[in-house]
Design a protein that fits this description.
This protein is an all-beta fold. The chain has one helix and 20 strands. It has two domains: about 130 residues, Sandwich (Immunoglobulin-like); about 120 residues, no CATH class. Strands 11, 12, 13, 14, 17 and 18 form a six-stranded antiparallel β-sheet that branches. The chain has a five-stranded antiparallel β-sheet with strand order 1-2-7-6-3, with no helix packed on it. Strands 4, 5, 8, 9 and 10 form a five-stranded antiparallel β-sheet that branches.
């Protein structure tokens, strides 16, 4: 079952930037402050991945994407009155949030897994050009808190320590950086329908280090209605123990350790 996770995603993706006007100076940020929006890891971006840039002087005010920013399903590359833009390999990235201290953006899905330059401009003033090598995939699980992944049941209810999943039940994970889908995501467009990962994507779900049977994954691909967000629908093994560590692996790329899935114990 494919569901729109917009409300849940906004809660999980906290907006932390300060809302204080800055003087008209160039943006300030570093390679270490350009991160995967799901887990705040630097150096782990891929095409169609949600990213975050932390820094200073990156906008004159705070603005969050709103319905009136979406004209004909086209995502904005400029938000608010700041004229802030993010460029990835020469392409203006779609923006979800801007503030003086934080920008949330989407790596254009039409990029290739190659080295690119990333930089921010505000009213034409450019910050430093940061070299980043895009990978085919950069899996990152969105987190409900410091230790638990954002996950829901088929009915949309959120899995928590107070309301965990049961072994053998269906769980839905929310992630970014899972790479190419079929059909491929369109630059600047909000996806209107499900699009599974391409054949050969080789996604593995690891629970306490053990791969879930691939046949248990009913769907893995683009989440309709939110560009750059992926969902994975799978059935938990009946042997799943309490609160297993959960990681996503695609080739040599793997999500961070220490993230857990709320599951009731039957071990």
């Amino acid at each position: 079952m494919v569901r729109s996770p917009l409300a849940l995603f906004i809660v999980a993706w906290r907006l932390l930037g300060a809302d204080q006007p800055a003087p008209r100076v160039a943006p300030i940020y570093t390679a270490a402050s350009i991160v995967n929006a799901a887990d705040n890891q630097s150096g782990v971006l891929a095409p169609n991945t949600l990213g975050t840039i932390y820094g200073a002087n990156m906008a004159y005010s705070t603005a969050t994407i709103a319905l009136n920013d979406l004209q004909g399903g086209v995502l904005p590359t400029v938000l608010g009155a700041s004229e802030t833009q993010v460029f990835v390999g020469g392409y203006p990235a779609d923006l979800y949030y801007v503030s003086p201290g934080q920008i949330n953006f989407l790596v254009p899905p039409n990029m290739l897994a190659l080295p690119v330059m990333v930089y921010v401009t505000i009213d034409g003033l450019a910050g430093p050009q940061i070299p980043i090598t895009l990978a085919p995939a950069a899996p990152g699980l969105f987190q409900l808190d410091l230790t638990n992944a954002v996950a829901t049941r088929a009915d949309g209810s959120v899995l928590t320590q107070a309301s965990p999943a049961q072994p053998g039940s269906i769980a839905i994970l929310w992630a970014t950086g899972l790479g190419e889908t079929d059909p491929r995501a369109i630059y600047g467009q909000i996806p209107e329908a499900a699009a599974p990962l391409v054949v050969g994507a080789n996604l593995s779900i690891l629970l306490d280090g053990l791969a879930v049977d691939p046949r248990a994954i009913a769907y893995a691909g683009q989440a309709p209605g939110f560009a750059g967000l992926y969902q994975i629908n799978f059935t938990l093994p009946t042997s799943t123990c309490q609160n297993p560590e959960i990681r996503l692996k695609m080739g040599s790329a793997i999500s961070i350790a220490g993230v857990h899935l709320p599951v009731a114990s039957k071990c």
